[in-house]
Write a structure and sequence with these properties.
400 residues; Rossmann fold; 5-stranded parallel sheet; 35% helix; alpha/beta; elongated; EC 4.1.1.36; binds cytidine-5'-monophosphate; FMN binding; 16 helices; EC 6.3.2.5
């Protein structure tokens, strides 16, 4: 087994991989990129593999004992762990500008690639195109996993667990699929997601709004795109970056959100994650409203906004699943189930707001999903993790 170690923080996990591969009976020769040596020393790999580690194409002593071409021929299997975005790009491009890329290019052995990187790098269309190219050429891709990353963020980018890599090498069919392709049920499915608040203008400088951050809807859009769905994200006024591969339509008011959602249909799934304002001013003042010395108070006349979610749910024809959110301060189950029935939804995700550890503005969320004949609790976790779990449930409900 030729283990090529790339330059990422997950390089330390490759030490454990050497040990487990040897336990499984493999002879392991390690080759490291220059970047990998910044994270772990060759000496550590040498101690665990029992063989001198190869670090350079230009090492005359190593070339004398077994040249890189011989080493490339020697390998029965090449595993790259961790495979960084750069290494994947260089393999896809057929580069041979360092030892690891040259070994891979010079070898006819089966290749297993275990990516690990920041989730934005993994989800970037460039990396996705490169990994797809490697797959098309027959490489086995194991991982990455979804979860907390070294830099404090969360998302698909963690190196697959060492036992799973070992299992995938022993039985290629048991490979842990990489996150984007793991949920083939959503591949090619069209999803329209609303997210964020709406702002209802009173005059050119003031509006009525709410405290929605948009994070939950954006996390859902990101996770759905990563699973291969075609995602249209109708976003209220929030400052969040657009997730890779997502078509974003910015709106401000409930009326604009309704129009953008209707224009984005037909779709297979609609997820109403936006906190749509229930009321809007009856008249919008064209000029700034001025306070006067005489009046001590003022009244605003408000009118109801269209219920976008209920209207979408009535279009029973094309949509396979309509999912709503319910943010409640009390009696969560009762109100959520009421909305499920009244708005004719397939699924509603309810969470308590106004409590610590979740809801509006928070990075974390705990929720309960309700459908006609079932429910499921989700403990407090990051909105990115919750998005992944909710999409798993949504995929299951598609088939229900
Ligand atoms: O009735 P309530 O506003 O609590 O329902 C929340 C759900 O309904 C959310 O999914 C929200 O996106 C959706 N909604 C909507 N249009 C409105 C009000 C709420 O789509 N005018």
């Amino acid at each position: 087994m030729l283990l090529c170690v790339g330059g990422g923080i997950a390089a330390y996990k490759a030490l454990e991989l050497v040990r487990r591969l040897r336990d499984a009976g493999a002879r392991v020769q390690v080759a490291m990129t220059e970047g990998a040596q910044q994270f772990v020393t060759p000496l550590s790999f040498q101690a665990l593999s029992g063989l001198p580690v190869r670090t350079s194409l230009w090492d005359s002593a190593a070339e004398q004992s077994m040249g890189h071409i011989e080493l490339a021929r020697w390998a029965d299997h090449i595993v790259i762990a961790p495979a960084t975005a750069d290494l994947i790009a260089r393999l896809a491009g057929g580069h041979a500008d360092d030892l690891v890329s040259t070994l891979c290019l010079a070898s006819a052995a089966p290749l297993t690639v275990c990516p690990a990187m920041n989730h934005h790098m993994w989800l970037h269309p460039a990396t996705q195109a490169n990994i797809d190219l490697l797959r098309q050429r027959g490489a086995q891709v194991v991982g990455p996993e979804d979860g907390p990353l070294a830099e404090g963020e969360s998302g698909p980018g963690r190196l697959a667990q060492v036992p799973q890599i070992v299992a995938a090498l022993a039985h290629p069919d048991s490979a842990v699929p990489s996150v984007p392709s793991s949920d083939s049920r959503l591949r090619g499915v069209r999803l329209v997601i609303s997210a964020g608040p709406t702002y209802e203008d009173l005059d050119p400088v003031r509006y009525i709004g709410n405290r929605s951050s948009g994070k939950m809807g954006f996390a859902l859009a990101q996770a759905a795109a990563a699973r291969g769905a075609q995602v249209v994200l109708v976003a209220g006024p929030v400052q969040l970056p657009t997730p890779a591969g997502v078509e974003r339509i910015n709106v401000r008011s409930a009326a604009q959100m309704r129009q953008a959602v209707m224009d984005a249909l037909p779709a297979d799934i609609y997820i109403g994650a936006a906190a749509v304002s229930d009321y809007t001013p009856k008249v919008v003042c064209p000029q700034k409203m001025k306070k006067t010395a005489q009046t001590t108070g003022m009244s605003l006349e408000l009118v109801r906004t269209p219920d976008i979610l209920a209207e979408v749910a009535q279009q029973t024809g094309a949509l396979k699943l309509v999912v709503g959110f319910a943010a409640e301060t009390h009696d969560v189950a009762t109100y959520a189930r009421g909305k499920l029935v009244n708005k004719r939804l397939d699924l509603i995700i309810a969470n308590r707001v106004g409590v610590a550890g979740g809801g509006f503005e928070s990075d974390d969320n705990a929720a309960t999903a309700y459908w006609a004949d079932g429910e499921r609790e989700f403990a407090s976790m990051s909105k990115a993790q919750l998005a992944g779990q909710l999409l798993d449930l949504i995929s299951q409900r598609l088939d229900a």
